[in-house]
Design a protein that fits this description.
The complex is a heterodimer of chains A (354) and B (506). Chain A is of the alpha+beta class and 354 residues long. Chain A has helices at 3-17, 68-77, 95-101, 108-111, 114-117, 146-150, 183-194, 218-228, 235-246, 294-303, 326-339; strands at residues 22-24, 40-42, 50-54, 59-63, 80-81, 118-124, 130-134, 159-166, 168-169, 173-180, 200-206, 209-216, 231-232, 259-263, 276-280, 285-289, 307-312. In chain B, strand 5 (119-123) and strand 6 (128-131) form a beta hairpin. The chains are: A alpha+beta (354), B alpha+beta (506). The interface between A and B is large, with 85 and 98 residues.
C-alpha cells in the first residue's frame, strides 16, 4: 500500500480505537458548506496525484489530495474538461473535496452533476478498510453504484481516497449573449430553450438580465446565436462572467446577508420570498440573499417541489440542509452504521444525528 | 487467477430454486387474498408457468405465487404481508432481463408490475414524464414525440421492456454514449420499501438533500425497493441524424479508429462495431448493406442541426479514413439511416436464425484493449468448439459476444456457459467489468467473485440491509455470498493476495 494511504489508514484505525471523531479537511475551501465541522482534522493531501489519464478513454483517475486546478490543467492540455464545471471556492480545492461536496457549476443543467460522471471511487471506511466501487469504464452495472452515492456524501461515509471521473472534450466554439427579461419571462425562455435542440451550456438571470452560453461546433453555435438573438459578450468578458458566477465572485454573492440555495423544478414559478435572486441551471437553481427564517424559505422551496439549503452565512442552528422524510432518514442512519459504525467521520456535517 | 474453466461442471443453483411447498403456498395465498381481488393472484402451476423465467431462459423456476396488483396500495399490501411472513418478493417488469434478474423464488411471490402501466403526466415545458413502472420504454418517446421530445435510453428491447425494469437494471442502449444511461435520465423514483412504506428518492429538481440514494437505487436489481412511479427527463429530439458505416480489414484497426474519433473530440450519438462473423450472420437476414468482406465494420451516428451534422460527418469521415477505413458510406436519408441500423438492431434475432440457441454476454472493457480481447475470444472459439460473433457498443466499451450453442445438448450448454464466463473474467483482467448493462441477476453471480473482494462485497450487503433489513426483496440476486464464491472456485486475486485465505481451495 502507498505510504501516504497507509498513514491515513493508521489515522482512522487510531481514531477508532480512541473513540475520536475525524473532520476531513484538505484545502478547507468548503468549510462554510454544511453544518459546523467537528472532530480532529484529517488532512488527506499527502495522498495526491493523477494515477491514470487516457484522453481517448475519456476517463481520469486521481487521488483525493490532487489539487483540482492541477487536474483541470492536465485535462485542458488535452482539450478535455470536467463536464460538471465544479466550483473551486479557493486555490487549494482538491479532487476529493470536489467529489465529497458534490457541487456542480453552470454546465450542470445541460451536462449533468458530479455524480453523473463518477465512474469509480475508493473509500477508506470507518473500519479502516479500503473499498473499491465501480471502475473506469462508462457502463458498469456490477454491484450497487456506491461510487456515485459517495458524490455529495460530505465525508459522512468515509474518506474518498481516489476517484475515476468521466471527462469530455471541450467544445470547439462558445458564445455568450445577454437579453433583457424579467424573472417570469426569463424562466419561460430558459425552459423553452431547453426543450429545443440548442447547444445551451449555461444560463443565468439576475436583475432583469438573462445571460446564455452556447457551446458546440462552430456551425451549431452560429445557428443558435442567430436564433436566440441578444447582445454578444466579448470572449474574455464572457469567461469572467461565468467564472464569477461559478466561484461566487460576482457582486450578488458578496456581503453579509445569508446565501440560500433553492433547488426546484426548472419550470417552477418565481419563488414568493423576500430577497435578491440569481437564477441558474435553466431555472432549477435559485440563489437567494435573504434573512427570512429557515422555516419560511424551506416551506417556499417545498411548495415549489424542491428544497432549500443555507449555503453560506446565516444561522445554521436549524441545520444547513432540509430535513429528510423519516423513511429516508432511517436509510441514512443505517448506511452510516454500515460504512462508519463508530461515527468517526464528519459527525453532524450533513445532519445533526448522522 | 490461473484456473481454467472446466467444461463439464453444472452451474451452482441460484438461491430459491426448488419445489414449491404447498402448505406454505396456501398459508401465504390466504393472507394475500384478504387484501387483494381474486384476479390479482395466481397459484396454479399452469397459470404461474409463464413467469418461470425472463429473457435468460437458461434458468427456470416456478414461483410459489404470482401477484398482479393494479395499484400502489395493493403493492404495499403485498409487501406488508410478505414482510410480516418473511416471504421473498421478486419484482418483475416486462420480463426481458437477460441476466435472470426476475427469476422466481420457489418460496416467494413473483410481483408483476405490468398492470401499473399508465403515463401519469407529461409536462412538455418542464420536460418531465411521470410514469408507472409497467409503462414500456418506447411508449414514453411515442407520447413525447408530438412535443419534439424523447426519452433517451434505448435498450434493444425498448418496444417491450418497462421503465421499472430499466430502473432496476440501469439500462443503456445504442445512444447512451452521448445521452447517458437510465441513471442520467431519471429524476425521481417513488418506491415502496420492503415493509410497504413509501419512500421518494430524488425529486423533479436537479438534486435533493442528503445522500444521493437515487444513484444507488438505480441499477439495484429490485433488491432495495419496489418502484411505483418514475419521473424521467425528456430531451429535445435532434433535427437530423445521419449514420456512417466504415469498413476495416482488421479488428484492431477498427478499435484504434474508435479511439481516434474520441481523441479528436467527437462524441457520436451512437458508435457500434460488428466483427466479420456478426456481419455475415446479420446481412443475409437484415439486408442492411454491410460490407461482407470487412474484418469489422463501425456504425457511427451524428445528430444535431443540419449544419452541425454536415460538419461532424465530414470530420468523422476524415478521422476514419486516416485511421485506416477501407470504405465509408454515409446515409443520405432517414430510410437509409434506419436500414443501416436495422442490421445492428437485429443481431440477436439473426443469431437465433443461424443457431438453435445463443448466449449473449455483456462485459465492458477499456476501449484500447479491444483488439486484444477480440483475438482472445477468437482463440476461445477453438477451445470451446463454439462460434462467437461479436457486436460491440464501441463508444462505451461494452461488448456483446454472442456464443452460439445448442441448448438441447447439455455439453454444448455447459461449454457455452464456461465460454461466457471466461470472456467476462478476461474483461475484469483488462480493467473492465462483468456487466455493462444487462445486470448480474443470477447469471453473473460467479464472475462477480472475480471482480470484487470480500470487504467490498460485504459493503454491498450492508447497503442492502440499510434499505431492506429483512432481505426479502429479490434475495440471492446480483451480489454473491461468500459461500457461493467459494463454490464458483475462481477467486478475486488482488495484488497477489488470495481473497478467502481461510477457505480450502478446490
Amino acid at each position: 500500500m502507498d505510504p501516504a494511504l497507509s498513514e491515513l489508514t493508521e489515522r482512522v484505525r487510531a481514531a477508532r480505537a480512541a473513540h475520536q471523531s475525524l473532520c476531513i479537511r484538505a484545502g478547507g475551501t468548503k468549510d462554510f458548506y454544511g453544518n459546523q465541522p467537528r472532530g480532529e482534522r484529517l488532512d488527506p493531501r499527502s495522498f495526491r496525484g493523477i494515477v491514470d489519464y487516457e484522453p481517448s478513454e475519456l476517463v481520469v483517475t486521481a487521488r483525493c489530495g490532487t489539487p483540482l486546478a492541477e487536474l483541470e490543467a492536465e485535462l485542458a492540455a488535452r482539450g478535455q474538461m470536467l463536464p460538471f464545471e465544479p466550483p473551486h471556492f479557493g486555490d487549494s480545492a482538491t479532487v476529493g473535496g470536489c467529489i465529497a461536496a458534490g457541487l456542480s457549476g453552470p454546465r450542470r443543467a445541460s451536462a449533468g452533476a458530479v455524480r453523473d460522471f463518477v465512474l469509480g471511487a475508493t473509500l477508506l471506511d470507518g473500519q479502516a478498510q479500503v473499498l473499491r466501487f465501480g471502475g473506469t469504464v462508462m457502463k458498469n452495472v456490477a454491484g450497487y453504484d456506491v461510487a456515485r452515492l459517495l458524490a455529495g456524501s460530505l465525508g459522512t461515509l468515509g474518506l474518498i481516497v481516489q476517484a475515476s471521473i468521466k471527462v469530455l472534450p471541450v467544445a470547439a466554439e462558445h458564445a455568450t449573449m445577454q437579453l433583457e427579461a424579467d424573472e417570469a419571462e426569463a424562466l419561460a425562455r430558459m425552459n423553452t430553450w431547453a426543450g429545443q435542440p440548442l447547444p445551451v451550456s449555461a444560463t443565468a438571470w439576475h436583475a432583469g438580465r438573462l445571460t446564455v452560453r452556447l457551446s458546440g461546433s462552430a456551425a451549431a453555435v452560429r445557428a443558435a446565436r442567430e436564433r436566440l438573438g441578444g447582445g454578444p459578450l466579448e470572449p474574455a468578458a464572457a469567461a469572467q462572467l461565468w467564472y464569477d458566477i461559478r466561484e461566487h465572485a460576482a457582486p450578488f454573492f458578496q456581503g453579509p446577508a445569508p446565501l440560500w440555495r433553492l433547488s426546484v423544478p426548472s419550470s417552477a414559478p418565481p419563488a414568493q420570498v423576500a430577497g435578491d435572486q440569481l437564477i441558474e441551471w435553466g431555472g432549477a437553481l435559485r440563489w437567494l440573499r435573504s434573512s427570512e427564517p429557515a422555516a419560511t424559505l424551506r416551506a417556499a422551496a417545498t411548495a415549489l417541489g424542491g428544497h432549500a439549503t443555507l449555503f453560506r452565512g446565516g444561522d445554521r442552528s436549524a441545520g444547513a440542509f432540509t430535513p429528510l422524510a423519516p423513511s429516508l432518514a432511517d436509510i441514512h442512519r443505517r448506511l452510516k452504521g454500515q460504512f462508519d459504525p463508530d461515527s468517526i467521520f464528519n459527525p453532524g456535517r450533513m445532519f445533526k444525528d448522522l | 487467477m490461473t484456473q481454467t474453466a472446466t467444461l463439464d461442471r453444472a452451474p451452482p443453483a441460484p438461491e430459491g430454486v426448488g419445489a414449491v411447498d404447498p402448505h406454505r403456498q396456501l398459508e401465504v395465498l390466504q393472507a394475500l387474498r384478504a387484501h387483494l381481488p381474486q384476479d390479482c393472484l395466481l397459484a396454479h402451476a399452469e397459470d404461474t408457468r409463464p413467469y418461470e423465467c425472463d429473457g435468460l431462459t437458461m434458468f427456470r423456476q416456478l414461483p410459489m405465487l404470482v401477484a398482479l396488483p393494479r395499484t400502489e396500495q395493493q403493492v404495499a399490501s403485498i409487501l406488508r404481508i410478505c414482510h410480516r411472513m418473511a416471504v421473498p418478493v421478486v419484482p418483475r417488469g416486462a420480463g426481458t432481463s437477460l441476466s435472470g434478474g426476475a427469476l422466481p423464488h420457489a418460496q416467494g411471490v413473483l410481483l408483476s408490475m405490468a398492470r401499473l402501466n399508465q403515463i401519469v403526466s407529461l409536462d412538455p415545458v418542464a420536460r418531465i414524464a411521470v410514469v408507472q413502472p409497467g409503462v414500456r420504454n418506447q411508449a414514453i418517446s411515442e407520447q413525447a414525440a408530438r412535443h419534439g421530445l424523447f426519452y433517451a435510453p434505448d435498450p434493444s428491447s425498448q418496444i417491450a421492456c418497462s421503465i421499472g425494469g430499466n430502473v432496476a437494471e440501469n439500462s443503456g442502449g445504442v445512444h447512451c454514449v452521448k445521452y447517458g444511461l437510465t441513471l442520467h435520465n431519471v429524476l425521481r423514483v417513488r418506491a415502496l420499501l420492503s415493509d410497504g412504506t413509501v419512500a421518494v428518492f430524488g425529486s423533479q429538481a436537479l438534486d435533493s438533500p442528503g445522500l444521493d440514494l437515487l444513484a444507488v437505487l438505480i441499477g439495484s436489481e429490485g433488491m432495495l425497493a419496489v418502484a411505483t412511479e418514475v419521473s424521467v427527463r425528456l430531451l429535445p429530439r435532434a433535427q437530423l441524424a445521419r449514420c456512417a458505416i466504415a469498413s476495416f480489414d482488421d479488428v484492431e484497426t477498427a478499435g484504434n479508429a474508435v479511439a481516434a474519433l474520441i481523441g479528436a473530440g467527437i462524441i457520436p450519438a451512437g458508435l457500434e462495431m460488428m466483427d466479420r462473423a456478426a456481419v455475415a450472420m446479420v446481412e443475409p437476414f437484415a439486408h442492411a448493406g454491410y460490407d461482407l468482406g470487412a474484418a469489422a465494420i463501425l456504425l457511427c451516428e451524428s445528430d444535431g442541426t443540419p449544419e452541425e451534422v454536415a460538419d461532424e460527418i465530414e470530420r468523422i469521415e476524415q478521422v476514419l479514413l486516416k485511421a485506416g477505413a477501407t470504405r465509408i458510406s454515409v446515409s443520405c436519408d432517414e430510410a437509409e439511416r434506419l436500414k443501416f441500423w436495422a442490421g445492428r438492431k437485429n443481431a440477436f434475432p439473426a443469431a437465433g436464425r443461424v443457431s438453435p440457441d445463443y448466449y449473449c454476454t455483456d462485459g465492458t472493457i477499456p476501449r484500447k484493449r479491444l483488439g486484444e480481447v477480440l483475438k482472445a475470444i477468437e482463440a476461445m472459439e477453438t477451445k470451446y468448439g463454439l462460434r462467437c460473433p461479436n457486436v460491440f457498443h464501441a463508444g462505451d466499451g461494452n461488448l456483446h459476444p454472442l456464443v452460439l450453442y445448442d441448448g438441447s445438448d447439455p455439453a454444448s450448454r455447459a461449454r457455452a456457459e464456461a465460454f461466457g464466463e471466461e470472456i467476462l473474467e478476461l474483461c475484469v483482467r483488462v480493467g473492465g467489468t462483468v456487466t455493462g448493462e444487462h445486470g448480474v441477476g443470477v447469471e453473473k453471480l460467479g464472475t462477480m467473485c472475480t471482480q470484487f473482494d470480500t470487504a467490498t462485497m460485504d459493503a454491498f450487503f450492508g447497503v442492502r440491509r440499510a434499505f431492506d433489513p429483512g432481505g426479502i426483496l429479490n434475495p440471492g440476486k446480483a451480489i454473491p455470498t461468500l459461500a457461493r464464491c467459494a463454490e464458483y472456485g475462481r477467486m478475486h486475486v488482488h495484488r497477489g493476495q488470495v481473497k478467502f485465505p481461510d477457505l480450502p481451495r478446490f
